[in-house]
Amino acid sequence: MDPTANLIDPMNLAESLEALRTSTISKVAEVQDLDGLATVENEAVGRESPIAAARRGLGKMPNEDRSDAGRLINEVAKQIEAIVAMRRDELQAEAQEAAITAEAIDVTVDYAEIASGRLHVIQQVTDEVCDIFVGLGYHVAEGPEAELAWYNFDALNTPLAHPARLGMDTMYVDYGDDEDGMVLRSHTSPIQARYMETNEPPVYLVAPGKAYRNDTIDASHLPVFHQIEGLAVDESITFSDLKGTLAEFARQFFGSGTRVRMRPHFFPFTEPSAELDVSCFNCDGSGSSCRVCKGVGWLEMLGCGMVDPNVFEAVGYDPDAVTGFAFGMGVERLAMVRHGIDSIRHFVDNDVRFLNQFPG
Length: 360
Known about the structure:
alpha+beta, BirA Bifunctional Protein, domain 2, 2 domains, 7-stranded mixed beta sheet, two-stranded antiparallel ribbon, 9 strands, 40% helix, disordered N terminus
């Protein structure tokens, strides 16, 4: 016989079931978690519960009493299951509310703010200059920093006897059988030669990047610095096109009132060549007591000129069919002039006090 059968008295079935229902309601109200509720439910209506025992005892009852007894047992069982279900919903809601409370974030509490990074002032100037020329129809080109001497010198009309090819100026790389064959590029002009070698004219490009020279560090020199070279090759390009292009760049970079002038100079890869000066933006070119231009009224800015025909021949262009101009500027120079920086060393000192002055 089932050990729990005596909890339901067949002779007083209604009273026994009511007592079970009442006691179960009390236990359900007192239970505080889902595990405890499952235990109470199992004790009341589970496989070994009094309800299960009463159902197993229906077969021993007279036929005329069996139907009423079965209906009564089922009604009490359903009432107990409904009470348990209601309490389960309450406990689940309480558990969810407790979890939400425990995991809540107080957005009013102060927190440690991590400072965000920003572009270095050199990169800011590089991007701005490139954007100006992209707006004029140029595109940006890149090339290797470890360069063949052919592209760094020979293709740019720089002969073997030129002083720039000496080790005191150029950093040579110990690579391969040719001791003079590989260098750290001393300017970004090799990018122009490489591009022309594989692309037919017209060509309109700017070439930003690092350059390397065997210079001693001082207020205006670094062994590693940044340049932006420009090249335009097309039919019937003239020196006037060069001056007009650089004048427009100067107006956009330094201000709409900026004037330019050109002074004769020499570069192996351009002929004729010139240095471009811009009117001092600080004193508007007057020069009076100006700390930026030192009273001159002009600022030396970049080198430029018409591409030498020997350069065209080296890259496979017909110098009788096309003409072009080239220019090159130091990014550090542009940044120093615009922001009044007195030493190029500030760009590499990584002093946050200096860098924070250029949020971009």
